[in-house]
Every structure is written in structure tokens, then in C-alpha cells.
């Protein structure tokens, strides 16, 4: 079932997105030419308003993985994904009331610099943090490559052209305009993302026979079975895996993530930062609901002819772009809007990563080695770091092309890294008695457990009895040599599976972050108990207490 490829108008609409983003970078470069300080470049002079910060936070974390992956997830597994609205709520509350006060009132730009005050005694130990943070480069490369590949295989959109263009444009406006350009570009991209979703929803709903028909089809296809209270941790998606496991996963991405904290501390005050986080929660809900309903509309449209099982596309991640090219086949330019929607998330994520990487490197390495740099030189070095990391992230997309299961791998890796980091910062903030030995052993324990479970799940996927994909039909498809009904069952398991394959390795991927966090916290407390609690007024215990008191953390606990 062939679909038309991109035409000139589609490319024009898509190119406009890149042009506007680049123009925002130029605007802030000209506007801020008289404020040439590293503080202005990296954190917007700490004078940002909460409105654009809220938009920026939503856009940077709702990447193309969300635009392409969430509708596909709902299409195959049902609307239980909407329960993430509870996870997001928990995450934002903890971030705003527990983690933000520590980072904002510390007056420190890098989250890893804060770690030296709340946990680590020796700067050399912070290498552990930076090794984890540099995985952000690989993740960013994956975020660039994954949507480009999916769109290329369905729409004919040039693969490496889009990868290179994304890297160049992001690097361009990050380098010229700094954090202000990144934030305002994110705000624009958020609008584009929602506009793309709404356009698809309206057109898809009309072609499916109206919202009532979509709802009926979803109900008959078991897509509306949302509340499953099974406590089995091996089940892929239940109420508990999504709400509890999802909260741990997203807290690792929000609560202790450099990109998030850097935006928050750029606000005029802590109060403004909290308002930005809570407004961002509203944005997360809106994007989530749009993505979930897109999945239901897509199911209604293809309920009797699933393009994946029929062989029209080769992977579930291609469902959304295939759907767009199908329903807008007679409307040139509109598919270009959807591609702009998908790449808005990508641009935002890449820009956030470049800016965060540059900030951490400058604050934790450059300033430590060259403490007497002038503001002019500091700004130029910061811009040079943006160019460096922009090139590295773009190049890493080539490495991502060699990986399999790109989208799921990206999310799992982020969860496996975020969990141990979350556990470490939780130890430092909530448990002042933990010493640096406990912190390091706890971090390594969390990383080991999370990666053990995660890598094991990649090698030995959970059986279909735990993932429970829903039935998909090809009844009305013109497909040669196939039965009238196909279902999305997992590949047959190999004859020889280790004992842990159906237990430890079959844990829901949403629990990887929880495993890393709890493993880190428990091991950290145990080792600190065995080696002697940190109760003296020597560095860093005394500084940690000062930081905690300054941040008023006690009143939040």
C-alpha cells in the first residue's frame, strides 16, 4: 500500500521551522551583544520569566520519541499510557518542593557541582557523575537519528539531510543566543508540537466517522482498559508500573537533571521557578492527552487493516508518520507540519543537551582549571563548547544508526542512568549522615543493578504473557499469503533461557530507574553505617548542613 512521498510544499513548511529557530538565535545574539558574560549566556542572567521556562521544560522532554512513540504505544497496548498524568504530577511536586530549593538557593549552576557539597569530598570522585552525564551525548544522538529514520522510511524524507540540518541549526542558535535562545525556541517548538497533534486529531477523527465512532472502536478493541491494579512487577504496563515506576523514571529526568535544573535556576526567583514547573505540568498533560488520543484515532482508522502486521511498514515507530501521510495524502504541506511537530521535540531535546553539556563542562572543568578567566573569554569558551557538543551529538547519530530497537533502548538507558543519580542526590539531601564512601558504593550498586536488569531485558525480552499486546487485524487488507487475522505477539522465546530470564530480566522497563535509585539508597546507607556515619563539622558534612539549612529543605521534609 504505497503512499506519496514528500512534495515541495512539505519541505517548505518543514524548512520554515528551522528558519524560525535560527532567527531566534540571531535575535538574541544581537539583543544580548552588550551583555557578554558567561552567566548571561549559560543561565540567561537568572532573569528569565516563568512562562517561557514552562514551555521550554515541556518541549525539551516531549521529544520525537513522544510524538512518534506514544501514539504507537496506545495503538498496540491501549490507553493505559494516560496514567502517566499521575506520574508527572508526583514528579513535579517532588522536584518543586524537594530538589529545586537545594539547587536554586545553592547559587551553583551545575547540579554536579552541588554534589561536591552534599556528598563528595574529593573532586576526583565527581568523574563518576560526568561519565554518566556524558551518556547524554549518546542519548541525544539517538533522539536525532530515531525520528529521522522513521520518517525517512515512510515519507522518503532525506535521512542524513535531516540529521545534519538538526545538528547545525541547534548548534547555531545555542552558540549565538545561549540559554535565552534555547528557551524561546523551545516555547515556539511547543506551539508547533501541539498544532501538529491537533491537526492530526481533527483530520483523523473526521475520517474515522467522528469522536463517538472513535470511542466505540477503541472500546470494542479493548483500548480503553486503563485501570489494571495487578501488582505483578513483571507486567509491562499496570497502574502500579506506570504511576510508581513512571514516577521514578521521570523524577530521574526532572529532579536531578542538569537540563531541567539549569532552566529553573535561570528564573528570577525560586517562586518563579516553582510556578514554571507547575505550569509545565499543565503542558505535559496537554501533550500526553493529544498523543494518547492520536493513538486511539489511529486505531479506529486501521482497526481492520493494520499496516504493521500487513507489512506496509517495518516497525511500530513508523505507524504515526504512515498515518499522517495516509490521511493527508491530498493536502500538500500538511505532512510537513507533522514532521515539523516531530522535529520540534527533537530540536528542543538536542538544544537542551548541548546547553547543559556546555554548562557542566565550563563550571566543573574549565573554571576549576582556569579560575581567573575574564568574562569575555569565559563567554567565548562557552560558545566553543556549544559548537563542540553540537558536533559530537550530531556525529553520535551515526553510531545510533548501528543500534537496534533505538527508541526503546534510548528510554531504557535514560532510566538506567537517571535512577542511580536520583538515589545519590536523595541520599545527599535527605540523609545527612551518609558519608562519601557510602555515596560512591551506593551509586555503583545502583548502576550495576539497573544495567543488569536493563541489558538482561534486551537480550531476553519478556514473554507476550507479560507484555500483553492487543489484537490487530488485517481483515480488509490486500495482503498476499497471509491469514485474515494477525496479532502482535512477541517472537518465540529461545529454547534455552536462563533462570533469571522470566523473572529479573522480565521486569517492566519502567522499574529500571526505581531499581537504580533504591539500590543506591540502600547500599549507601548500609556502607555509611559500617564505615562510620558523617556527623562531624568537617567538610563536606558541615557544608551539607549549611546548604540544607540555606535551602530550607527541612521544612519540606
UniProtKB/TrEMBL annotation:
Record keywords: Cell membrane, Ion transport, Membrane, Sodium, Sodium transport, Transmembrane, Transmembrane helix, Transport
Domain of life, source organism: Eukaryota
Subcellular location: Cell membrane
A GO biological-process term: sodium ion transport
Protein's UniProt keywords contain Ion transport: yes
InterPro entries named among the record's database cross-references: Na/Glc_symporter_sf, Na/solute_symporter, Sodium:Solute_Symporter_SSF
Primary localisation category: membrane
Molecular functions per Gene Ontology: lactate transmembrane transporter activity; symporter activity
Keyword Ion transport listed: yes
Pfam name, any one: SSF
Gene Ontology cellular component terms for the protein in this record: extracellular exosome; plasma membrane
Parts of the chain that traverse the membrane: 6-30, 50-69, 81-104, 125-147, 159-179, 191-210, 237-256, 277-299, 386-407, 413-434, 441-460, 509-535
Protein family: Belongs to the sodium:solute symporter (SSF) (TC 2.A.21) family.
NCBIfam families, per the entry: sss
Protein name per Swiss-Prot or TrEMBL: Solute carrier family 5 member 12
Organism of derivation: Anas zonorhyncha (Eastern spot-billed duck)
Amino acid at each position: 500500500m504505497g503512499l506519496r512521498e514528500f512534495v515541495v510544499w512539505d519541505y517548505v513548511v518543514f524548512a520554515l521551522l528551522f528558519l524560525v529557530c535560527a532567527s531566534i538565535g540571531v535575535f538574541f545574539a544581537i539583543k544580548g551583544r552588550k551583555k557578554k558574560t558567561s552567566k548571561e549566556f549559560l543561565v540567561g542572567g537568572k532573569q528569565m520569566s516563568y512562562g517561557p521556562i514552562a514551555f521550554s521544560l515541556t518541549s525539551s522532554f516531549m521529544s520525537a520519541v513522544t510524538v512518534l512513540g506514544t501514539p504507537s504505544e496506545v495503538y498496540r497496548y491501549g490507553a493505559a499510557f494516560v496514567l502517566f498524568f499521575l506520574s508527572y504530577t508526583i514528579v513535579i511536586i517532588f522536584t518543586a518542593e524537594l530538589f529545586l530549593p537545594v539547587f536554586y538557593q545553592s547559587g551553583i549552576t551545575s547540579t554536579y557541582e552541588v554534589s561536591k557539597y552534599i556528598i563528595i569530598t574529593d573532586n576526583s570522585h565527581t568523574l563518576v557523575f560526568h561519565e554518566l552525564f556524558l551518556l547524554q551525548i549518546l542519548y541525544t544522538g539517538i533522539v536525532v537519528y530515531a525520528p529521522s529514520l522513521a520518517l525517512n522510511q515512510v515519507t522518503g524524507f532525506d535521512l542524513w539531510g535531516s540529521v545534519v540540518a538538526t545538528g547545525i541549526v541547534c548548534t547555531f542558535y545555542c552558540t549565538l543566543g545561549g540559554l535565552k535562545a534555547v528557551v524561546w525556541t523551545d516555547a515556539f517548538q511547543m506551539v508547533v508540537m501541539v498544532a501538529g497533534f491537533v491537526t492530526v486529531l481533527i483530520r483523523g477523527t473526521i475520517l474515522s466517522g467522528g469522536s463517538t465512532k472513535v470511542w466505540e472502536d477503541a472500546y470494542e478493541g479493548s483500548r480503553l482498559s486503563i485501570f489494571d491494579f495487578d501488582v505483578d512487577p513483571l507486567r509491562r504496563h499496570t497502574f502500579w508500573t506506570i504511576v510508581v515506576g513512571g514516577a521514578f523514571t521521570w523524577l530521574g529526568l526532572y529532579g536531578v537533571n542538569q537540563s531541567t535544573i539549569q532552566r529553573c535556576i535561570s528564573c528570577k526567583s525560586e517562586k518563579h521557578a516553582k510556578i514554571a514547573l507547575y505550569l509545565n505540568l499543565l503542558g505535559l498533560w496537554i501533550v500526553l492527552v493529544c498523543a494518547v488520543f492520536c493513538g486511539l484515532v489511529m486505531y479506529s482508522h486501521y482497526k481492520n487493516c493494520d499496516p504493521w502486521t500487513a507489512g506496509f511498514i517495518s516497525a511500530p515507530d513508523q505507524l504515526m508518520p504512515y498515518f499522517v501521510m495516509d490521511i493527508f495524502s491530498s493536502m500538500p504541506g500538511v505532512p510537513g507540519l507533522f514532521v515539523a511537530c516531530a522535529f520540534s521535540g527533537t530540536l528542543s531535546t538536542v538544544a537542551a543537551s548541548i546547553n547543559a553539556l556546555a554548562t557542566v563542562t565550563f563550571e566543573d572543568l574549565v573554571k576549576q582549571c582556569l579560575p581567573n578567566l575574564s568574562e569575555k573569554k569565559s563567554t567565548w569558551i562557552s560558545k566553543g563548547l556549544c559548537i563542540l557538543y553540537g558536533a559530537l551529538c550530531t556525529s553520535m547519530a551515526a553510531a545510533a544508526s548501528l543500534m537496534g530497537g533505538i527508541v526503546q533502548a534510548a528510554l531504557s538507558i535514560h532510566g538506567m542512568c537517571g535512577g542511580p543519580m536520583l538515589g545519590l542526590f536523595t541520599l545527599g539531601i535527605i540523609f545527612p549522615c551518609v558519608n562519601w564512601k557510602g555515596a560512591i558504593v551506593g551509586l555503583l550498586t545502583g548502576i550495576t543493578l539497573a544495567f543488569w536488569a536493563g541489558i538482561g531485558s534486551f537480550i531476553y525480552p519478556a514473554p507476550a504473557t507479560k507484555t500483553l499486546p492487543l489484537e490487530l487485524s488485517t481483515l480488509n487488507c490486500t495482503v498476499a499469503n497471509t491469514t485474515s487475522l494477525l496479532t502482535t505477539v512477541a517472537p518465540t522465546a529461545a529454547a534455552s533461557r536462563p533462570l533469571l530470564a522470566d523473572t529479573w530480566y522480565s521486569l517492566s522497563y519502567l522499574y529500571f530507574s526505581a531499581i537504580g535509585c533504591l539500590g543506591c539508597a540502600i547500599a549507601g546507607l548500609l556502607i555509611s553505617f559500617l564505615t562510620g556515619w558523617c556527623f562531624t563539622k568537617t567538610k563536606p558534612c558541615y557544608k551539607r548542613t549549611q546548604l540544607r539549612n540555606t535551602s530550607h529543605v527541612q521544612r519540606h521534609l
